[in-house]
Design goal:
The protein is α/β, with parallel strands linked by helices. 62% of the residues lie in helices and 10% in strands. The protein has a 5-stranded mixed beta sheet with strand order 7-6-8-5-9.
């Protein structure tokens, strides 16, 4: 039974070996230009446009989409985890640099100390706007943002980022002396549905949103000129993009090529007509730039297969590391009384940190260690930390439940402490240990979907895209395989338990 036990644990630890080979193979290739984009449709389209333009010029570029916030992308650009991403002048001025920006040359001068450059604007101003339904505008005679001050009982719903931005809700509320009944943070796409259903009365909009026309919304005039211009442009690293003369030429060639009405149309094709952003970007480049890009859409099976490998890599590697660390910690907590409570308290505290917060918190420490702050590393570390508690506690409980008589029998037989630990105590505690590993594995399958917010891929990618596009098919494309994987993982550990745990102990 001892050999089978360690063989089973080795299977858990080494189950992700294939993914390590894939990573090593990827690292051996030339480093591509990495383009990032934010968690909204327009940013994803602009990311696809520049990636396909670079690839068409035989410059290898990849797109990491759906990053959950401006600061995450900005920090990823500074650390070199990405090389380029689409941004807006108003955001740079108010949220990132937090100082006046006179013109493009002044902006470039401000970015240069960061090792960054900026291309000329793409040709449209996607400013913030405040919108209401036609019915609300008519009921309260709303034409300007100032008019909202006359109706203090309205319910406001803003994007979570807008709630805290310097150029967002705090400044808007002060500028117009607004006193709503409530102001809550919502996902941008969900806010549109909440506005339509009447759950909220007022929301923030992006002026190029396709939904404005679709829902026939009223844009309230910014009569006190609170919102600045938000001209879209690409910002990039000087040591990668600018150092590559052809890459810089490609990025600059896009400047001035996308007007506001064209951007609204691109957004509508993705959001309302459910076209993939890659396909929409290809059509635009072919039509407006004379490219001949063939946009091939992968099948659902191919997409699920790719996401399954990514998800398995996250779950397998993090669980393997947790098993190697957590079992010794659990044994130590049980055998060394003075450290037991400290170990249990420490792993318990980690479990209380919200998963999304932990993913963001890990970015800078990983950068300090010379590791990427986006992609797999932060996701793996977070999943590893969340796996510790169930395995440590189950190991601790398994050892603590051993009878004192059994321990004394080992001493009478003259067994050393280590021999008793491995040949008797560990075997008796094995059902509890495997239960903890199984719990950690199943939880990891669910937690790993959040890794998509920092570019780690997996089943979270179609779920996030589906939420963004209000596409239940895409949401289910990630949710159903995730549920199936969780069930299969649980069944796998049930089989392992039957193989390595004696029938008497299982009973």
């Amino acid at each position: 039974m001892k050999n089978r036990t360690f063989a089973a644990l080795a299977l858990v630890v080494l189950g992700s070996g294939a993914s390590l080979n894939l990573q090593a193979e990827a690292q051996s290739q030339d480093k591509p230009i990495v383009v990032g984009s934010k968690l909204f449709i327009e940013s994803g389209i602009l990311g696809e446009v520049v990636v396909q333009a670079l690839n068409e010029a035989d410059i290898k570029a990849i797109h990491k989409a759906n990053f959950g916030g401006t600061r995450i992308l900005w920090n990823a650009l500074l650390s070199g985890d990405i090389d380029l991403y689409p941004e807006y002048t108003g955001t740079l001025k108010h949220e990132i640099l937090r100082q006046p920006v006179r013109d493009l040359e002044h902006l470039r001068g401000l970015l240069k100390p960061f090792g960054l450059g900026a291309a000329a604007p793409l040709g449209f101003n996607n400013t913030y706007a405040i919108g209401v339904t036609q019915a609300t505008a008519k009921k309260y005679d709303l034409r300007t943002i100032s008019d909202l001050g006359r109706v203090p009982g309205l319910k406001y719903g803003f994007t979570n980022e807008f709630m805290d931005r310097q150029d967002g809700w705090p400044g808007l509320r002060a500028k117009y002396d607004l006193k709503p009944a409530q102001a809550r943070g919502l996902d941008h796409d969900i806010a549109y549905r909440a506005l339509e259903s009447g759950d909220i009365d007022v929301m923030d909009l992006y002026s190029t949103d396709a939904e404005i026309k679709y829902y026939d919304l009223v844009l309230l005039e910014d009569d006190r000129l609170y919102f600045p211009r938000y001209d879209a442009l690409y910002i990039y690293r000087l040591d990668t993009v600018s150092a590559n003369e052809l890459a810089l030429e490609v990025v600059n060639s896009l400047s001035g090529k996308i007007k506001a009405d064209a951007m609204v149309d691109l957004n509508a094709r993705v959001k309302l007509k459910k076209k993939p952003a890659s396909e929409v970007a290809a059509v635009f480049l072919n039509t407006k730039m004379g490219f001949e890009i063939r946009s091939g859409r992968s099948s659902r099976f191919q997409r699920i297969q790719k996401r399954t490998l990514e998800h398995f890599r996250l779950v397998g590697l993090s669980l393997a590391l947790a098993v190697l660390v957590a079992i010794p910690l659990g044994v130590m907590a049980s055998e060394v009384r003075c450290t037991g409570n400290a170990v249990l308290w420490s792993v318990g505290m980690v479990q209380t940190i919200p998963s999304l917060a932990l993913l963001v918190i890990l970015i800078r420490p990983l950068n300090w260690l010379g590791l990427p702050g986006i992609g797999d590393p932060p996701a793996l570390v977070a999943l590893f930390l969340y796996s510790l508690l169930p395995i440590v506690r189950s190991t601790y409980v398994g050892f603590q439940s051993l009878s004192q008589t059994l321990r004394e029998t080992g001493q009478v037989l003259g067994l050393s402490r280590w021999t008793r630990l491995f040949k008797i105590d560990f075997q008796m505690a094995l059902p509890s240990i495997l239960s903890g590993i199984k719990t950690a594995a199943v939880l990891n399958v669910g937690f790993a979907t959040l890794g998509a917010l920092i570019g780690a891929g997996g089943y979270g990618q179609p779920i996030l895209t589906g939420i963004r596009l209000d596409d239940y098919g895409l949401i289910l494309e990630g949710a159903i395989p995730s549920a199936v994987m969780a069930i299969l993982v649980q069944q796998m550990f049930d089989v392992i338990e039957r193989l390595v745990v004696s029938k008497g102990l299982r009973a």
